[in-house]
Structures are given as structure tokens and as C-alpha cells.
Amino acid sequence: QVELVQSGGGLVQAGGSLRLSCAASGSILRLNAMGWYRQAPGKQRELVAVITSGGSTNYADSVKGRFTISRDNAKNTVYLQMNSLKPEDTAVYYCNSEVRLVTGVTYDSWGQGTQVTVSS
């Protein structure tokens, strides 16, 4: 029905930057809130940042001032610009969106995950 495809990520030194993208495709009527989560080894998945359809944003305290979430509604895409990366940002990052289909069904969709590794 709907697929979220992530791109970006990889290996970067501490202090560096990376940009993640997540594009949604399928029988989409509307994408409501879109967000990024991450899961480090041995830890629970945690919310990193979220953006509403109107553009309001919210961030985890640990990334405030360093990460920026944005979206392009015309492209059904959400981005995460990550600056001043720290080793503790190392995790698998997942995008998420509440999707409303043309059929009227609404559900949560997840991307495939992408590894971000920050070396010290």
C-alpha cells in the first residue's frame, strides 16, 4: 500500500554532519505527522524528532540545536539534517509517518532503517 524508503546515513567522524531522507510512495491521500526514531544496540527505540503536517516540530532533548527535521509535502518526503554528531548518536534510524490512504484508512508506516555510525 505505502512504502517509506530511506536514504542517507553511513559513517562519519564526531563533529560531522549527515542528512537522512525518507520518501513515501503509494496510494497516499495525506501524510500526517512524520518523524524519525533511532535504536541503539541494547536500547529501546526512541523518538528523535517529529514534524506535523503544518510544520510544527519537536525534538528529543539530546538532539536539540544539532538536528533539524523538515518535510517537503509535494514530494511526500521528510528529512533529518544531523550536525555536530556525537558517538552517542550512533544507532539505526527509522522514519515513521501516519499515513491516510485514499481509501480512508489511516495507519503508521515505517521505513526500512538506516545505520548511522559516529566515530570518536
Write the layout of secondary structure elements.
Layout: E1 2-8, E2 10-13, E3 18-26, E4 28-39, E5 46-51, E6 57-59, E7 67-72, E8 77-82, E9 91-101, E10 106-110, E11 114-119
Parallel strand pairs: 2-11
Antiparallel strand pairs: 1-3, 3-8, 4-5, 4-9, 5-6, 7-8, 9-10, 9-11
Low-confidence stretches: none
Q: Percentage of helical residues?
A: under 10%
Can you count the beta strands?
11
Total of helices: 0
Mean pLDDT across every amino acid position: 96
Terminal CA distance: 41 Å
The class by helix and strand makeup works out as mainly beta
Gyration radius over CA: 14 Å
Element-level helix/strand string: EEEEEEEEEEE
Largest sheet: 7 strands, mixed
Morphology call = elongated
Strand content: over 45%
Question: Overview of this structure, please?
Answer:
By secondary structure, the protein is mainly β. The N and C termini lie far apart (41 Å). It has strands at residues 2-8, 10-13, 18-26, 28-39, 46-51, 57-59, 67-72, 77-82, 91-101, 106-110, 114-119. Strands 2, 4, 5, 6, 9, 10 and 11 form a 7-stranded mixed sheet that branches. The mean pLDDT is 96. The protein has no helices and 11 strands. The radius of gyration is 14 Å and the shape is elongated.
